[in-house]
Amino acid sequence: MCYAIPGKVVGIENSLVTIDYFGEKKYAKNDFFSLKIGEYVYAQGGFIIQRVSEEEALPILEAWKELFFKLQEIDSRISAKPQNLYQRANYLRQKYSGNSCCVHGIIEFSNYCRNDCLYCGLRKSNDRIRRYRMEIGEIINTAEYAVKKLGFKALVLQSGEDVWYDEDKICKIVSGILKNCACLIILSIGEREESLFGKAYKVGARGLLLRFETGNPILYEKFRPGHIWKERVGLIKKLSALGYLIMSGFLIGLPGQTKEDLEKDIDLTASLKPEMFSFGPFIPHPNTPLGDFPKPSLEFVLDIIAQTRMKYPDSRILVTTALETLDKINGLRLGLLSGANSLMINVTPQKYRTLYEIYPERAGTEISVEERIGYVIKLLQSLGRAPTDLGRGG
Questions:
Q1: How far is 308 from 320, CA to CA, in rounded Å?
Q2: What is the Cα–Cα distance from 2 to 147, expressed in whole angstroms?
Q3: In which residue ranges of the chain is pLDDT below 70?
C-alpha cells in the first residue's frame, strides 16, 4: 500500500498548485517540475515530489476510492459525540484535518554524537554504547528499498550530531536518494551549520526535524552543556525562512519542568509555524546523569497531545516512538485517539536498529519493518485513518 495518493492538478498559480483528491482540494508547492492542468502528481508535506502518468494514476485512484470513503465513515463514527478531553481532541482532529494520517519512514544512520546532553543515551560520554555509522551507499540503498519496495513517500534521515557526515557527505546522501527515488527528504541531524542545511536544500532536502527540547532557557542550557537556547531556536527560524518544512517540539517530563513551561512550549512550537508538532516523553537512560529520574505517565503525555489539538485544531501532531515505548501495546492507538494524526516507522536495517539507544527498550525495534508496517496499517484502518499525506486544505 502506498503512503500517498496521486491527485489531479486543477490549478496553478506561480509555484502553488491546487490538487484534487476525490473532490477535496489541497495545495502543494512545486519546486521541481513543469506542470500542466490535468496532470497527476504525488505530494508530501506540502511539496510535489513526483509527476505520474494518467495511466499509472487512475488504477491507483480506483483501488483507493472505495476504501478512502469507507475509512472516512469509520473515522467519523469513532470521533462523533465527544465527551472527555481525548474525545474532544479527536473530534477536532477529524473536523479540521479529516482522516489522513501521515506515515513517514525513518532511517537512523549514525549513533555518534559530539554533544553531551544530560538526557540522551547517545551522549559522547556514554562509553557503554556500541557506535555505528552507515556508509553513504548503504543509506541510499536503504532509502531506495523503503520507497520502491515498502511504499514510503517521505523519509526522515536521522543521526546524532555526527560531524563525520560533513556538507559533502550529507549532500551526496540527499542527491543520491533523489536520483533514484521520488520522496520528501527530512533531515534530523541536530544543530549543524546553517551552510550545510543551505547546500542540502539546494540538492533537494525539504524537511527539518529539529526540536528545541524545552522553551525554558535555563533548563535547556543546564541539560545541554555548552549550548545556547537562543541559537537553537534562531537556527530553526532561519531554516524555516530558507524554505524548510519545520517539524519541532519539546520533551515532556524533564526534571524541573513545570506545567507553565509546557504550556509555553506548546505555544512556542506553534509560533514556529511547524508542518508537524513533535513532542514526546523524557525517558531516562541509565547511562546518563538523569538516569534515576522518573518518566512521565502515559496519561500525562496524552493530555499534552489533546491540549495541543484543542488549542491548535488544524495542526499535525506526531505520535512519537517514545510515547509508544511508555505502552507498547496501546500507546500508538491511544495517541491517535487523543488528537494525533502522524507517525513514523523505523526502516533502519535491523542490525543497527537496537543500537540507536537514545533511551532503552524503544518500541518497534524488536520486529521486522514489514511486520511493523502490517501492524500499523491494520491499526489505522480499524480507526478509519488513511495512511496518506493529502497536504493542506483551502
A1: 15
A2: 9
A3: 1-2, 390-394
